[in-house]
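The instructor's notes for this session suggest beginning with a concrete chain rather than abstract definitions. Hand out the sequence below and ask the class to guess, before any prediction is shown, which regions might be ordered.
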Amino acid sequence: MEQDIFEHSLRLINKYGRKTAKPCRYGTDDLLYAAEVHMITAIGIHENITVTGLAELTGITKGAVSQTLSKLSDKSLIEKHISEKRRTEVKISLTEKGRQIFRYHQDMHSITREKIYAQLDTLDDKAMETIVNIINELDNMLDEL
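After discussion, reveal the predicted structure:
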């Protein structure tokens, strides 16, 4: 049983890696990689965020943020504008098409969240604590790789 859970967890991690390596459509004709749609989500939640803010929020370098933003700009999914307060600061927001992708992705997450919470609601506190501990151990394992 323990081996099955471990192997299933690794299979799940690998499947996620494969899925995020392929571009998908999120309610528009645009093919987007996971990094792009997650950047759109961060911008959608934090409208008018800066490159520095996105780097801090996502945990990736400003250079990587800039590269992703360039791709999103080429696809007309974001807009950049100079801050009124600080002329050297660029604020990023979503275009209407970017907001459409943001809403689609948020809806996908809401549906998934509802399904998972429905299962979690059937567990007692001890079982929930065990699941949280297992997830933390998997998280630590990935940090060590």
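Then share the key points. The longest strand covers residues 78-82. Helices lie at 2-21, 34-45, 51-58, 62-74, 96-120, 125-144.
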